[in-house]
Amino acid sequence: MTDASLKAVILVCTLSPSPTSSSADLLGRQIGDEFSTHNVHTETVRIVDHNVKPGIGIDMGDGDAWPAIREKVLAADILVLATPIWLGHPSSVTQRVLERLNAESGQTDDTNRPVLFDKAAMIAVVGNEDGAHHVIAEVAQGLSDVGYTIPAQGSTYWVGEAMHGTDYQDLTETPKATAGTTQVAVRNTAHLATLLKQRPYPAG
C-alpha cells in the first residue's frame, strides 16, 4: 500500500521535440499510468521541449528552463528518467539532466542532509540496438551519486532486434516481458518512496 500523497515526475529524455512521437515518451507515459494504480500522482516533462541549458548550476541564467523543472523534481518523491539508447549510451539529453542534477550535491536541508536523500528514482530505456543494461547502469550511478535511492529491479526497458528499424512505438502491443518488468519496477519504486517518506535517512 502506498501513500496517496506521493508524487512522481517523469523526465523524458528523447531527442525528438513535441509533437513528434517518441518511444521514450510512450514508455514514460505507460509508467505514469502504472503509478496511478498505486495512488501516485505523476507529471511528465519532455526535456527537449524546454530550454535546459548545459552546466552544473541550479540556474544557468538567460532563459534557462531548468529552475522551473527543478522545482517539480524537488517537489516529487519519485524521479523517473526515460531515455533512448544512442550509440550504446543514454541520450545527450539524459546526460544534461544528470549534469544539472549534480548541482543538488551541494544542497542540504535544515538537518544538513542532501536534499535528494529521501527520494526514489526509476529508469526506463528504449532502443532498437543493444545496451539497455549498460545504459541503466550509467544512469543509476549518476542518480545514486546525487542522492537518489534506486529500488530492487528499479528499471524497465525494451530493445528491438539489433540493426533493425523497429521502434517501441511501432509495436502493436506492449510485450508481456516489458509490461511485467514495468509493473515490478513501479511497484517497488512506489514502495521504496513510501518507506523513505515515513523513515527518512538519518542526519549525520
TrEMBL record:
Biological source species: Yaniella flava
Domain (NADPH-dependent FMN reductase-like) ranges: 16-153
SUPFAM superfamilies from the UniProt entry: Flavoproteins
InterPro entries recorded: Flavoprotein-like_sf, FMN_Rdtase-like_dom
Protein name: NAD(P)H-dependent oxidoreductase
Any Pfam family matching the protein: FMN_red
Segments crossing the lipid bilayer: none
